[in-house]
Backbone:
């Protein structure tokens, strides 16, 4: 299917103001899409109310409207510009909701504007809880037992049937605003009342809680010819119960066997096909750590925060490809921009580990409740790449700019054992540091696992980093052998951190390290694990043999 | 303990011993799959090869008795960046290092596998060796003296010694046939992966697996509804006697060739194969099926390919191509019930997008019934 010739002018809806629950991912996606559309000769009309965005630069679109993102204003713009198509899947939930409203108000039909990428029906099936559940059942994909309610007593009746814990999710909100986990009738009444109030359609979903299960995401793409691929899968270090946006996330998944990886991949492709999405889609699944049972938790029929992460984690430009698909191109007609020789129709192979850590605003709001749960509180995130999990974790921690150089956070040493236990059980933004503190005090992986439900694989890695701290603590310069230094560098200990642990001067440690020839090399993120030559200069540092610069 | 990996051109990589100690020699290849190391280790198509995995964190979910594709590990040697010594999985029964030790597979960890991959990608696959007991010069000498991968018949080393029926997810050498099965399939074992048996059994077939030396006459004596030519290791050009038997089977019963089986069909149908520079090994190869017009993500493991220009018979048509390099990925015959693919519809490891090819073969058998 060649590019559609009837689509000459496309309207793109931006995401409006950046709010808590976003990481500015929609500006990234929208900008990429505007470029991709113009590359194909389309005129782009952009509407966004947020001036602090790259997409509203006049070089990004042919026409830029800085107007409120409401049906009234958009209708005026549509009447004025007469676009052939509307691309709503790049402006996050705001763009998707607005497109839905425009369609429902008959604006699109009246002006002959086609909704591109994701059909309205797919948006409804993914967003409307009842329709979602029914669609998943039709596709043979399991969803947790649930009920849609519009009143608190209805929710309580369901609770009497199923038991606790239950999770409450309001329909049509961003970042799970207004949701929560209820462990008893009182909590259920509170959370439900709040959720109903927050929901655009005064509706909440109450469902069986799969807290503690593995939380896995797949970023999948589909074109108009039904070709489907997986860009990347991701595993949340924090198991089910914590919003993905508030979870430490690793790509690709680390604790899934091939059987599980493929089972969930197949389910994700089944879903994007079933919904008829043309473009990108994010599927969130819960996997039982003790069996092959899984549930589909959520589907985002649009570019999301996770797709921004997946794009940067793999080098695969999801928004760009999604925009091209929206105007009729097939995956096997779009070149892979990284290799230039291969096509966008393949699945990236990673040869490194990627880690994302959320950045919370608690340092600015001292009195906020620092607990993290189903409602996203993070206002940003950092990502790091390395050849080892340890290296990526340490890099990401340093990138947070909260004054840490590793797993040591000031104040942790003052916690009582009881406080540690409580903080492992009830996660806050500081949990990763609490875990490290527990290991410093000799806690066993098994104890930490029982309290936190975090997979032992991740905990063993953190325990190993703490063991390295211990090995380094108080070392004299002579004791910093080349072997020990290299091992520490491979695990992500920077010179400042080594200085803190040993009491030696940072500059002296660096000099010694360089004397031994221990210096980082740079490797390329190339989508294909070096199978093909890459032309894009996208690098990460690591302590290995070959430098690719 | 230290270990070294030396390539035939003298390149040396240093690392730490993994699995058994000693020396291993073979053709060095890389695989880009991010999961499925146990399936890769036990795939007979890797016989004679030292396999390097590009994904750096291996062994995370341990090993178990179920995720095997043959009786045990088949690789000549194993190269990884990092092997997990504390696996975490409810099905795990041990770690990768113990598994390799138990099966006497020599490996090396701590290698900059990305550097190795770039080397192989640029220069093509090379013979190489892993050793815990030689100096680089000694090992290089051994590697250079070793028989070249391309001139060894590995198929005869991996094929089953005697026929068996696939029963209860394992070989049953009693050969008690279930005559009630809707379809009976003979699998010619050149290095079959168990998941081919599982895929056929799941579709209601009775699977009889026979040694690669079985004659066409003996295969037909089972009165099968169809024949599968299995994957396997090495250069198909060395397998003249098997190709001769395959020729005898053409048109007699529906045939499905997979991987090496596809290459054998290529030869039997008058074509030739050639060696790829660094092969296709991974779980992300896009293949276009001209019958459906769609692209499928496939699991691949092959170092040779059918030369499309060598196929002179106009009835032999290229049905699938690889979108990365446009090489032949499948054949079909316009008159006879013959189909083949160069990749692995049985997955394991890799995407399950291609199970439909088994369905297609089942349909072919039903039509010919």
Residues:
């Amino acid at each position: 299917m060649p590019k559609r010739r009837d689509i000459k002018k496309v309207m793109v809806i931006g995401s409006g103001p950046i709010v808590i629950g976003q990481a500015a991912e929609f500006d990234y996606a929208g900008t990429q899409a505007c470029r991709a559309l113009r590359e194909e000769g389309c005129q782009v009309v952009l509407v966004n109310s947020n001036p602090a965005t790259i997409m509203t630069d006049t070089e990004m679109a042919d026409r830029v409207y800085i107007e409120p993102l409401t049906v009234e204003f958009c209708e005026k713009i549509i009447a004025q510009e007469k676009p052939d198509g509307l691309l709503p899947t790049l402006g996050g939930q705001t763009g998707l909701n607005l497109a839905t409203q425009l369609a429902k108000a008959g604006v699109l039909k009246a002006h002959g504007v086609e909704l591109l990428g994701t059909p309205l029906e797919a948006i409804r099936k993914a967003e409307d809880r009842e329709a979602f559940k029914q669609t998943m059942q039709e596709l043979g994909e399991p969803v947790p037992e649930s009920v849609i309610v519009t009143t608190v007593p209805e929710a309580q009746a369901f609770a009497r049937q199923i038991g606790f814990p239950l999770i409450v999710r309001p329909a049509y909100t961003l970042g799970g605003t207004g949701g929560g986990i209820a462990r008893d009738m009182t909590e259920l009444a509170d959370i439900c009342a709040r959720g109903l109030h927050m929901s655009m359609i005064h509706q909440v979903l109450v469902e069986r809680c799969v807290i503690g299960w593995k939380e896995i995401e797949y970023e999948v793409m589909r074109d108009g010819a039904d070709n489907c691929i997986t860009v990347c899968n991701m595993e949340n270090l924090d198991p089910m119960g914590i919003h993905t946006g508030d979870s430490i996330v690793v790509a690709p998944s680390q604790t899934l066997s091939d059987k599980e990886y493929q089972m969930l991949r197949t389910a994700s492709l089944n879903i994007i096909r079933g919904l008829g999405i043309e473009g990108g889609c994010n599927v969130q699944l819960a996997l039982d750590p003790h069996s092959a049972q899984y549930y589909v938790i959520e589907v985002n029929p649009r570019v999301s925060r996770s797709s921004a992460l997946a794009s940067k984690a793999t080098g695969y430009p999801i928004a760009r490809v999604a925009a091209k698909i929206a105007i009729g191109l097939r995956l096997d007609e779009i070149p892979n921009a990284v290799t230039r020789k291969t096509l966008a129709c393949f699945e990236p192979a990673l040869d490194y580990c990627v880690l994302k850590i959320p950045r919370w605003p608690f340092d600015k709001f001292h009195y906020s409740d620092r607990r993290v749960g189903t409602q996203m509180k993070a206002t940003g995130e950092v990502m790091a790449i390395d050849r080892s999990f340890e290296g990526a974790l340490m890099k990401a921690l340093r990138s947070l700019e909260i004054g840490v150089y590793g797993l040591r956070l000031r104040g942790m040493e003052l916690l009582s054992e009881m406080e540690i236990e409580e903080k492992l059980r009830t996660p806050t933004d500081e949990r990763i540091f609490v875990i490290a503190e527990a290991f410093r005090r000799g806690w066993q992986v098994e104890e930490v696992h029982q309290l936190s439900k975090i997979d032992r694989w991740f905990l063993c890695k953190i325990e190993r980093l703490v063991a390295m701290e211990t090995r380094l603590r108080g070392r004299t310069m002579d004791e910093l052998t080349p072997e020990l230094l290299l091992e520490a560098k491979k695990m992500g200990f920077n010179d400042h951190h080594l200085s803190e642990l040993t009491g030696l001067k940072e500059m002296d440690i660096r000099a010694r390290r360089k004397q031994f020839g221990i210096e980082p090399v740079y490797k390329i993120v190339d989508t294909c694990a070096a199978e093909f030559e890459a032309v894009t200069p996208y690098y990460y540092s690591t302590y290995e043999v070959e430098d690719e610069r | 303990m230290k270990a070294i990996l030396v390539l035939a051109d003298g390149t040396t990589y240093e690392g730490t011993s993994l699995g058994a100690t000693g020396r291993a020699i073979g053709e060095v290849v890389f695989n880009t799959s991010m999961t499925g190391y146990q399936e890769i280790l036990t795939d007979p198509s890797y016989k004679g090869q030292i396999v390097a995995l590009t994904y750096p964190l291996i062994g995370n979910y341990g090993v178990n008795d179920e995720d095997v594709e043959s009786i045990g590990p088949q690789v000549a040697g194993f190269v990884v960046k990092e092997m997990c010594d504390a696996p975490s999985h409810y099905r795990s029964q041990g770690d990768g290092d113990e598994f390799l030790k138990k099966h006497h597979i020599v490996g090396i960890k701590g290698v900059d596998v990305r550097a190795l991959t770039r080397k192989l990608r640029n220069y093509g696959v090379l013979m190489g060796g892993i050793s815990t007991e030689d100096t680089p010069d000694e090992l290089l000498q051994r590697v250079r003296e070793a028989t070249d991968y391309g001139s060894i018949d590995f198929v005869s080393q991996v094929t089953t010694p005697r026929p068996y029926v696939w029963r209860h997810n394992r070989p049953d050498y009693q050969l008690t046939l279930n005559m009630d099965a809707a379809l009976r399939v003979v699998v010619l074992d050149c290095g079959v992966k168990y998941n081919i048996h599982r895929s056929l059994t799941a579709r209601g077939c009775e699977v009889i697996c026979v040694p690669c030396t079985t004659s066409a006459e003996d295969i037909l004596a089972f009165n099968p509804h169809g024949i599968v030519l299995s994957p396997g290791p090495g250069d198909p050009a060395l397998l003249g006697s098997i190709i001769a038997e395959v020729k005898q089977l053409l048109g007699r019963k529906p045939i499905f060739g997979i991987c090496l089986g596809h290459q054998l069909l290529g030869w039997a149908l008058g074509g030739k194969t050639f060696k790829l520079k660094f092969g296709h090994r991974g779980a992300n190869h896009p293949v276009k099926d001209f019958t459906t017009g769609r692209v499928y993500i496939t699991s691949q493991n092959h170092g040779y390919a059918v030369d499309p220009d060598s196929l002179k018979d106009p009835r032999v048509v290229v049905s699938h191509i690889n979108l990365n390099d446009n090489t032949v990925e499948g054949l079909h015959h316009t008159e006879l019930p013959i189909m083949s693919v160069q990749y692995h519809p049985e997955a394991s490891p890799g995407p399950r997008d291609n199970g439909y090819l088994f369905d297609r073969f089942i349909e072919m058998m039903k039509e010919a019934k």
About this structure: Chain B touches chain A through 51 residues (CB under 8 Å). The two ends of chain B are 60 Å apart (CA to CA). Residues 49 and 76 of chain B are 5 Å apart (CA to CA). Chain B has two domains: 2-150, 155-368.
